[in-house]
Design goal:
- The structure holds two protein chains of two kinds.
- Chain A is an all-alpha fold.
- Chain A contains 15 helices and two strands.
- Chain B contains 15 helices and no strands.
- In chain B, helix 5 crosses helix 8.
- Classes of the chains: A mainly alpha, B mainly alpha.
- The interface between A and B is large, with 92 and 91 residues.
């Protein structure tokens, strides 16, 4: 009898522990490789290196130094400029391409497969190919421009153009990638909603703004926020092509953080930059959520119910 | 009136076709240019760049030399092999770790479930670049630098993939599992014998997403490897770009290889990848 009770409670414990056992591996990996490095950066930003390589607690010294450093302030500005221009550009282009390719014609389906190709192309590969195409003297882009009578452009060697050239490279991959999410969202919209709209006699434009975009909102929010994050942390093209130049024109924060740590071994400064970048990310995402909050949710829902 | 409307429709259709053709051209230009240039000889590579002609895109003589050199002299098979090992290991470990977590969130009630789920979701919002610099010290402390595990372990657990599994497993009826429990199978055995066999679509979606994530990573694989023999494709190509500024055909050949491998995996299975993307994009 006693024996029996013990087995039951053992079974019960086992049953209650099962979910934790299932989560153990993933939890350890996330804790060690995602959460811990972030805490490490926050904590490490409060230390500075002294002669001999030892670390000394410095309070907010790294931060006060940063905000007096023109290179850092320039990086903040470049990061914001890049993100603020490219994010809406990528999202609008991705929406436009998704809308164009949201039909069920066999040729359109084939086109979609072609347009997905950049998703499989690593950013390093995309950057490498574009770099050679944009070569000012033997690149193909200047040859194409010459056909239209445009003089050869310096592209990445010009402080005025370099950042925009990097935006083009990022768009080539980014638009295809985000388009895929938006197209998936579009295809989830119930066709009957459109039919109802057509009976009511709506035109294409009001169909887009009154029906398609509101129905796409979940995908759009996801794409906008993920894209903003990726752009705030843009690194590969700067590392490979410009090293932050010419004249600091592409020196984004992520590159400055990399350089601090791995070129100058100044980890305290690097962690402080990462911390600032995290704060900027939180602020930007916060602003986006504020604008996207569901202020007119009940109204939209009523409208849709009316349409359906 | 009808006449005018037809005219507009034709005009609209022409504009539509032009727009789609422009999209195709912009997408394919770099890829085709890379393929074309990789098949050129050293002498030809800069020769036809300007002015624009057919030979700007299509080589005069098709020559495989750059591929032979790439895999011979430059031992590119090594980064290819490394990338494949890292990708397969990430996908394998990722399946085990994320699917079990998704199973726990979908089919169990336990204390702290909501908090844990929020931590998992939050973790997938973190761009990998953000943790790469501080992660270097962590990995150094764990003695992982220059091991495959340095590239595999941080990538394997992924909140988005856990979320994907959870969605799918939630839709599997409990009655299916109860039958197995009555037969005396434990929860873990039920998972492998009942859940896994009916979950092939989500397993393919999740594996593809993890594979592409690993394939896209750069900053971390670069920091995590110092020995040339350990470098993955992305890092090897970045070194070509930084060092061999004039060996264009070799660089192009390397990029073509780096496009072909994921394209061969992704294009036939694109519908699964898109399904995964859709499920993660539609979350609240």
């Amino acid at each position: 009898m006693r024996q029996h009770e013990i087995t039951i409670s053992k079974d019960k414990i086992k049953r209650e522990l099962t979910p934790y056992a299932l989560l153990l591996l993933s939890f350890v990996l996330i804790a060690v490789f995602k959460v811990y490095p972030i805490l490490y950066a926050l904590w490490g930003s409060l230390f500075t290196r002294v002669a001999g390589g030892a670390m000394r607690f410095a309070g907010f010294e790294n931060f006060t130094m940063l905000f007096k450093d023109p290179d850092f302030l320039n990086s903040v500005w470049m990061t914001l400029k890049f993100t603020v221009i490219i994010t809406p550009l990528q999202v609008v282009l991705a929406v436009a391409v998704a809308l164009l390719l949201n039909r069920n014609h066999v040729l359109v389906r084939a086109t979609r497969t072609i347009v997905y190709i950049p998703v499989a192309v690593n950013m390093v590969v995309a950057t490498t190919i574009w770099n050679l195409m944009l070569n000012p003297s033997s690149g193909i882009i200047n040859s194409i421009l010459a056909v239209f009578g445009i003089a050869p452009q310096p592209f990445l060697t010009s402080p005025n153009q370099a950042m925009y050239v990097i935006m083009v490279i990022c768009c080539w991959k980014g638009v295809a990638y985000w388009m895929m999410f938006l197209l998936a969202g579009l295809q989830n919209i119930n066709e009957s909603l459109y039919e109802a709209g057509r009976i009511d006699g709506t035109n294409a434009l009001s169909e887009l703004f009154r029906l398609t975009l509101p129905m796409l909102k979940n995908s759009l929010v996801f794409v906008l926020i993920s894209d903003t994050m990726i752009n705030l942390f843009m690194f590969v093209p700067v590392y490979l092509l410009t090293s932050g130049g010419p004249q600091g024109a592409t020196n984004v924060l992520m590159y400055e953080a990399y350089r601090s740590a791995f070129k100058f071994s100044n980890y305290g400064r690097s962690y402080a930059i990462i911390t600032v970048l995290m704060i900027i990310t939180c602020i930007v995402i916060g602003i986006q959520f504020w604008f996207l909050r569901d202020k007119d949710a009940p109204r939209t829902r009523k409208k849709l119910r009316g349409a359906a | 009136m009808i006449q005018k409307k037809n005219g507009l429709t034709v005009c609209y259709k022409v504009l539509y076709v032009i727009a789609v053709l422009l999209i195709i051209a912009a997408t394919l230009l770099p890829v085709l240019f890379a393929v074309g240039s990789s098949l050129r000889s050293d002498a030809e590579i800069f020769h036809y760049a300007t002015p624009l002609s057919w030979h700007t895109f299509i080589p005069v003589d098709l020559i495989w030399d750059s591929y032979i050199q790439l895999f011979g002299q430059y031992a590119f098979w090594r980064p290819v092999l490394n990338s494949l090992i890292v990708a397969v290991a990430t996908v394998g470990l990722g399946f085990l770790v994320n699917a079990l977590a998704g199973y726990a969130f979908a089919k169990f009630d336990f204390r702290g479930k909501n908090i844990l789920f929020i931590i998992y979701l939050f973790s997938f919002m973190i761009p990998f670049e953000m943790v790469a610099v501080p992660l270097y010290k962590t990995a150094e402390g764990l003695n992982l630098i220059d091991h495959y595990s340095a590239m595999v372990l941080p990538m394997a657990a992924n909140g988005m993939i856990v979320f994907l599994y959870r969605q799918f497993f939630s839709d599997i009826p409990d009655s299916l599992m109860e039958a197995a429990t009555i037969d005396g199978a434990g929860k873990v055995r039920t998972f492998f014998q009942i859940i896994v066999p009916v979950s092939k679509p989500v397993i393919i979606s999740a594996s593809l997403m993890l594979f592409i994530k690993q394939w896209d990573a750069f900053l971390w694989p670069m920091l995590a490897t110092t020995k040339p023999a350990m470098k993955v494709i992305q890092v090897a190509i970045s070194e070509f770009t930084l060092e061999f500024t004039v060996l264009w055909n070799i660089i192009f050949a390397a990029t073509v290889v780096a496009i072909l491998i994921p394209a061969c995996v992704l294009l036939p299975l694109q519908k699964y990848y898109i399904k995964g993307a859709a499920a993660s994009g539609l979350k609240e």
